[in-house]
Write a structure and sequence with these properties.
Length: 293
C-alpha cells in the first residue's frame, strides 16, 4: 500500500535520478569535438527522436493526440525550448560548465517573471528580491570578463538560454497539450533543422559520436522524462529545489572529465545565485505556493 511518505520518497528518488542524469549534459557537450552548430544539429535531432520514442512507448495515443491538437501556445513553447537548447550548446562551447550551470540555475526566477508578464500572476516581493540577488550573483560571475569577447558572449548566451527556458515553462502552462512529449520533440526537431544549413554534420569526429549518441538518445530524453514524473509525487517546489543538484553535480563531472576547476569568483557568485534560488523556492514551499516552473 502506498502511503504519502512512500510516494514522497518515490518522487524524491525519481527526480534526483533525473537531475543526476541531466548533470552530464554540459560536460558531454564540451567533450564533443565539433563546432557549436554541428553539436546543436546532432544533439537536437537525436533528442527529438529520443523524446518521440519515449513518449510513444509510454502512451502512443496520448502522444499522437497532443501532436494533433497542439495550439499556438504549445508551438511557441516548442520554439522557446528549441531556442534554449541552441543557446545552451553555444554557451557551453565558450565558458566553463560551472559558470553556465550557475546561470541556468536561475530558470525558476525567469519563469516567475514571465508568468507575471504573460499570465498576469502576481510577482511576490520575495521573488523580486530573489531575482535581484541572483542578478548580483551573475554580475560577480562575469566580473572581469567584460573585455574577453568569447567569455562575455558565452555568459550572454547562457542568460539567453535561461530566459528561453523560463519562457518555455510559462508557455507550457498556458498551452493545452496534456503531455510535454510532443512539445519537447517538436522543439528539438526545429532547433536541429534550423542549424542544418550552417552545420557540417559529417564533420563530427568518430571519437565524439558515442558522446553525441549518449547525450541525444540517452541523457536528455531520460533526464527530462524522469524529472517530469517528479511533481506527480512531490510538490513542484520540492522538485524545483532538487534541480539545484545539477548546479553541484555538473561542475563535479566537469572537474572529473574536463579538469575544469571553478575560480574563487565563480564560487562566490555561484553561492549568491544558489542562495537566491534556494531562498525563493523555500519561501514558496512555506507559503504552500507553486513555482512557475
Amino acid at each position: 500500500m502506498s502511503t504519502p511518505a512512500n510516494l514522497a520518497l518515490k518522487g524524491l528518488a525519481i527526480t534526483m535520478a533525473g537531475v543526476a542524469v541531466l548533470s552530464l549534459d554540459a560536460p558531454l557537450v564540451r567533450l564533443i569535438e565539433a563546432d557549436a552548430w554541428t553539436v546543436v544539429a546532432w544533439r537536437s535531432l537525436l533528442m527529438a527522436a529520443g523524446f518521440a520514442v519515449l513518449a510513444l512507448a509510454a502512451a502512443p495515443g496520448g502522444f499522437l493526440r497532443d501532436l494533433r491538437t497542439m495550439g499556438r501556445w504549445d508551438v511557441l513553447a516548442a520554439a522557446a525550448f528549441g531556442a534554449s537548447n541552441v543557446f545552451f550548446v553555444a554557451s557551453a562551447k565558450l565558458i566553463p560548465v560551472a559558470n553556465l550551470l550557475l546561470i541556468i540555475a536561475t530558470v525558476p526566477l525567469a519563469a516567475a517573471a514571465f508568468s507575471w508578464v504573460l499570465l498576469g500572476e502576481r510577482l511576490r516581493l520575495g521573488t523580486g528580491l530573489a531575482i535581484g540577488v541572483a542578478l548580483c550573483g551573475i554580475g560577480v560571475l562575469v566580473a572581469g570578463e567584460l573585455t574577453l569577447g568569447d567569455s562575455l558572449a558565452g555568459h550572454g548566451l547562457a542568460l539567453a538560454s535561461t530566459l528561453c527556458s523560463g519562457l518555455f515553462f510559462t508557455l507550457l502552462r498556458r498551452g493545452r497539450a496534456r503531455g510535454s512529449g510532443p512539445i519537447l520533440a517538436l522543439g528539438a526537431l526545429a532547433a536541429g533543422l534550423l542549424v542544418l544549413p550552417v552545420a557540417w554534420v559529417p564533420a563530427l569526429p568518430a571519437e565524439s559520436v558515442p558522446y553525441a549518441l549518449l547525450l541525444g538518445l540517452g541523457v536528455m530524453p531520460v533526464a527530462f522524462t524522469l524529472i517530469a514524473q517528479g511533481p506527480r509525487y512531490l510538490p513542484a517546489t520540492d522538485a524545483a529545489f532538487l534541480m539545484l543538484l545539477e548546479t553541484v553535480l555538473g561542475p563535479i563531472w566537469a572537474w572529473i572529465l574536463l579538469t575544469e576547476v571553478p575560480s574563487d569568483r565563480v564560487l562566490l557568485g555561484g553561492l549568491i545565485v544558489v542562495l537566491a534560488v534556494a531562498g525563493h523556492v523555500l519561501s514558496l514551499r512555506l507559503r504552500g505556493a507553486q513555482p512557475a516552473s
